[in-house]
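Following up on my earlier thread - several people asked me to post the actual chain instead of describing it. Fair enough. Here it is, all 490 residues.
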Amino acid sequence: MLTGRQTLAELGRALEDVRRDAHRHDTAYQNVVQDLARNELLRNRRLQALARLRLAQLEDGDPPGWFTALESAERRALELLEARAAEVQSLRERIDTTEGQIEELETLRDERHVKVDAAARELAETEARVQRALDQDDAYQAQLARCRELAQTVEQAEQKAEVAAEDRGEKGRPYEADPLFMYLWGRGYGTASYDGGGLFRLLDGWVARICDYEPLRRQYWMLNEIPQRLRGHAEGMVEASDAALAALAALEDAAATAASVPALKDHLAEAEAEQDRVDADLATAEDALRELEQLESKFAMGTDEYLQDCLRGLAEAFDAEADRTLAELAAQSPGAEDDALVRQLADLRAEHEDLREELKDYEAVRTQSVSRLHELENVRRRFKQHRFDDLRSSFGNDQLVRAVLQEFLQGAISGAGLWDTLRRQQRYRDVAGAWPDFGTGGFPTPGRRRRRTPGRGSGWHWPGGRGGGFRLPRSGGSRSRGGFRTGGGF
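Reply from S.P.:
Thanks for posting it. Predicted structure:
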């Protein structure tokens, strides 16, 4: 079994691995982009070298425009690449600084979590002592017995009211199918509310004799009256039960206050608030890092303005006509040097195509890596928001949790699948015999639904805060430390 804190540490280590993979892929991608820029520069230089060999053969002593364009494009490209390298270095420094801030915040978060755990444990142990004391308190036990008795009475009364309502629906159908009877019933015939006179009273009396109305009226009235009385009785018992629970809660509150439980709850809330503030700072730093990494990705993928301007300028300088003219001149020349340059240009073109294909492969891998990074960041953030790293939190099947995490890292499942597994495996365990199903927290309504005293919640600490999908022990479930079980058994 993994504790909540151990599981959070597993997620943290996995996040570090994924982030390292993303950086490694970015570096590899950046290397290919740089090779592509180097390829373009080498092609430019080979073209210039080839042109210089042929300039002496030209009748005009001035170099042609396309040759000066090659030289100008190279100078501009070198300036852009130098500026680009400086920007990449600056961006990497900002990323390193932000990662350092995140590491410091993670350390601070661990320190805050130690305080939260200590406060939660002190509160749980204090509540356990109070509950054990109440277990020996005669007045409390008498009131608890009264609440038990009333809870059973409420359940029985509501069951009887439901049965009577069903019985009334079934037995009332023959009466309601008789139009003469229902006419007289609707008129209130035979009761003080009947206001018919003269001929109407005479005719209604005749109808009553035909359908044997009077005995049917008494029976139908009783059929309707019984469910109403039973429902009223059940509602009265609910009120009495709620009043008894309120009295029981007052005894619990008094005992808890005497043991400083409210102060310990406030102390825990303050510790959790401090931890939440660190988590908020962490989220802000992680978002900032994500923005920087996205900017770095533009450089890694070669979509930044520096490289695009560089390649655009070189491409424009590689005039197709000049390229073809130089190749034709080289073919006509008896020398071997210019032929070698032409072959090198052909090799550089082939290398250029290979580099383009390599970039496509790296882009697919890198996109998947960045996607996993962001998904895992979101899973870990939700994990902390739901307080799954609470002192009492645990994950039943540690092998399954680790296996699913590994499948996520391998790309077999999504972040949503990982979160769903964590949510389903998460449980809360009793660390001090003080589960919040004690006393007022454990009385169910019919159908095993927990009923809260109007206007208040349970007097005991519920792990995980409000919501969060936590799973408390089942009613009547066993405790690992054999603590008090009054409420949980109803």
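Confidence is low (pLDDT under 50) at residues 55-59, 445-457, 466-490. That should answer part of your original question.
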